[in-house]
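Recap for those who missed Tuesday's class. We walked through two folding examples back to back. For each one, the amino acid string is listed first and its predicted structure tokens come directly after. Nothing is annotated here on purpose, so try labeling regions yourself before you check the end of the notes.
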Amino acid sequence: MKVKVSHPLPIYAEALECLIEKRGGLEVAAGQLSPNEPAVRVAVDTRLTAGDLAELQKIRRAGSAVLVLAEGKSLSTEVAAAADAVVSLSSPTEEFLGKLSALGASRRVIGVSDQGAGYFEVRLSSNEQKAAQFLARGASNQEIAAAMGCSEQSVKNYMRQLMRKLGCKNRVQLLLKLSRAE
């Protein structure tokens, strides 16, 4: 998983990227990433505008994770809603790198093959991953909902997202793709 730092001051962004690459052992994305390119985005709370927050929420909906470095203990509800994780600027470096690594690991990847070769990656949320695993075992939406502790409508939404992300038109195609991915 790539990491991208967002900060209006290049020296801060470069310093964080250097720390992430050297001490965290994570890949830092070079240049600009498209909003749909999966990555863990790091943003600094003291520099976030309303436009930045809207962009971070859009990035999260596209499958990326967002970690916000926050100054102090208080955090606006807007910033909290835009973040998957928050780390205080006064936190130890290891805490920051640990949360960053955990976010990267939480973005599940399924390798899918179209003709037995040429794997590509699809990023799934943890709920989509769980729903896919139950589906691959032959569970119905009702059984998946009971096992996951959510509504049947939520499961239908996960299935719709899975079909969209994996390029399937129906549940049978989805099941076939998932069975080839394992």
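Example two. Treat it independently of the first, because the proteins are unrelated.
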Amino acid sequence: MKQPQAIGNLVSRGMNDLLHARTGMTGDLISQWRTIAGDELADHCAPIKLKWARRASHAVGDAAEKPATLIVSASGVWALKVQHSTGEIIARVNAYFGYAAISRIAIEQRGPAKNKQIPIAKQRTSPRPSARVTDQVSDIRDPELRETLARLGAAIEQCRKR
């Protein structure tokens, strides 16, 4: 018998599959673009798709293992800024995914949107952990892990208060 699953997980998986089929990307690249590219660039450019090299065969070491080309849209002078920041953007994307996901960036220069600004979700500020959460993670030696778990605990507490 199948276990019940949260509808959010099913929708998220379905959307990631659809997004991957149409653009070669997952939702992570889009949802974390501001974190990856930085606020200034994220306000003026966005990832459109990943273009993977075609595979001629299924042999190990063929084009399937080559990094993709990230296609981004930018308007006006920001296309030039993206071009100058290409190396840094590639490094940030690859660092975010933990492997050489992309090796190039192609820019599609587009005119400014006319009265249609797509709002980009800003990162929410993390709630401060309560004394209870801080006490629960105090025995963890790794400071980065301790801080991350404290933020997670604070976010869970905040959700339960709603």
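Answers for example two:
Residues 18-23, 60-64 have pLDDT under 50 and may be disordered.
Strands lie at 45-51, 68-74, 102-109.
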